[in-house]
Amino acid sequence: MQTRISPRFQDDPIVAEANAILRTCVHCGFCNATCPTYQILGDELDGPRGRIYLIKEFLAGAPATEHSLQHLDRCLTCRACETTCPSGVRYARLAEIGREHMEAEIGRPALERLKRRALRAIVPYPERFRLLVQLCAVFKPLLPQALAEKVPALPQALPTTARPMVPATRRVITLAGCVQSVMTPATAAALEQILATLGIAVDVPASAGCCGALSLHLNAHSEAHDYMRRNIDAWWPLIDAGSEAILVSASGCGSMVKEYGEALKHDPDYAEKAARISALTRDPSEWLIGFMDEIPFVPEYRGTVAFHAPCTLQHAQRVQGIVEQLLQRAGYRLTAVHDPHICCGSAGPYAILQPELSRQLRGQKLDALQAAQPDCIATANIGCQMHLQGGTDVPVKHWLELVLTALDCSVHAPDFVLSHSDLTL
Length: 425
Description:
Blueprint: H1 13-22, H2 36-41, H3 48-59, H4 66-73, H5 80-84, H6 91-106, H7 110-122, H8 126-138, H9 145-148, E1 170-174, H10 179-183, H11 185-197, E2 200-203, H12 213-217, H13 221-240, E3 246-247, H14 251-257, H15 260-263, H16 271-280, E4 281-282, H17 284-288, E5 304-307, H18 311-316, H19 322-329, E6 333-334, H20 350-353, H21 355-370, E7 376-379, H22 382-389, E8 396-398, H23 399-404
Parallel strand pairs: 1-2, 1-3, 3-4, 5-6, 5-7, 7-8
Helix pairs in contact: 1-6, 3-6, 4-6
C-alpha cells in the first residue's frame, strides 16, 4: 500500500511504525472474511481493510472525526484478520496506534471518558473489583437488564489452609491476575494442583498484579507500561533463582505478557528484561503438553465438551489444538463447533463499551457451542468465561478445572489442599 504521511507526523516514531505496517497491506480483503464486526454490520469501514484506510487517510492529513473513531472502537482487536492475512499485516498494532492518535486529537464525550476511567480505576485492583461485584449484586434488581446480566455471582472462597510443600526440583511462576483471582480462583488452584502432580512447584509473587492489557486497550499506554514494569520487578528475582517459565492461565493476560518485549523495547532500563519475560511466558497448555505422558490421568469417559478457543489464544498467541488434546486425553469428547475462529464478543472492556455488538456475537457463539448439546463449555480466558456464562445455563469452565477432575492427585502430593491465603487479592 502506498502511503503519504502528513508533515505534522513526520517526527513521530510511532507513526513511522504505523507507516511501515500500512505498507505491508495489499488491499486483498481476505481479512474481512474473518472479521466478526464486518460479518454483522456489512460495512467496509467496520472491517480491517476499511479501518486501515481510515488510519491511512488520517495519518496523511485527513481530520479525525467521531465517525472514524467509532469505526475503530467497534474493532474487537480479536486478531482473526492477522491469522487470515497472507501479507502478515500487524493490524492490531496499527489499530492501537490509530485509536491513540485519533483520540488524542478529538477527545471523547464526558460519559465515555468516565466509563474508561472507572474501568481503569476498578478492574485491575482485585479488592475494588470484588467490592463492585458485591454492590452490583445487591442492587441487581434495580439495574437495567443489559447491565444486570453482566453481574456475576462471586464464587465461594477456597480453603485457606497453608500452601503445601511440593517435593520439587523444578519451579515456575504463575500470575494471579485481577479479575480471575476474584471471580474464578479455582482456575489458578487447578493449575497449581496439576503442576504438583508433576512435582513442579509454583511461585505467585503478591506484588505482581494486572498485566496491563486493560489500560493498553483503553489508550492509557504509560499506565500499562507501569503495570508491566511492576510485574517484571516482581518476577525477576524468581527468574534469577531458576524459575523455568511464567505460566499465565488467562489467555488474554498471557498474550499481553508475551508482548512485554515489544511494548517496552524502547525502555533502556527494561527492554532486555521485558524481552526475557516474553520469551519465558507460556500458556499452561503449551507447558503441560510436554508432560502428556507423565500427567497421571485416570482413564474414564467424562462427558461432552464444546471448547471455545479465545481469540487471545488462537490468534494472538497462535496456540491451536493443544488444549483440545489435553481435554481428550482427560476423557472428554469434544463436540464440533461452527466457525471456531469467530470472537465471542467479550474482548476485554468491549462488552461494556460496545454492548449491542457484544451481545450479538455472544448469541452467535453460544448457538455454535451449544449446537451439539454439550455437557459443558470450556474456554481458556476469564473474560470469555464470564461473558459466555451470562448467556447460558450450560456450565462454562476453564479447561484447567476439567483436566484436574481427570487426575490422580495422590501422585507427588498425597494430601494436596490448595490455598491462596498468602496472595494479595
